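>> received
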Amino acid sequence: MFRFTRTAIEPEPLRGELADPACGGYASFEGWVRDSSDGERVRRLEYEAFEALAVREGERILGEAMARFGVAHAACVHRLGDLAVGELAVWVGVSSPHRAEAFEACRYIIDEVKHRLPIWKKEHYAGGDSGWVNCERCAAPAAHEAEAPAAQAHGHAHRHGR
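>> returned
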């Protein structure tokens, strides 16, 4: 189960959804909003996504992890919208007959989610500046937005070179 939410992620109920008497191993990952990035103080984050595509691809990633590592259950929930420092931005959970496979699958899922899904993060800094980061689709050699049509194609502007 891959899904997005615009409200706080509550790990305990999600963990309960993965409970299985055949599973002796459980692993999870929680990604929290930190207070700094590249030496700048972060006030908050803002997440956007191409939701329909991301859910489809997220489900594909979970299926790949289950097949590749032989785990019984896998889930991922990602926040959208505005998040304060300290809030949970992403949660991944895996249950498996054995712990090693649960850890490996959990790592695989978060790495693939970060790499493959159309999810964009905007950092808002203490000094008032802000910028979209880690958006490969938006990376362009152009120095100005008008020269970077890819940046316009999915609905948000960027601070290039960051």
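>> The CA atoms of residues 123 and 161 lie 14 Å apart.
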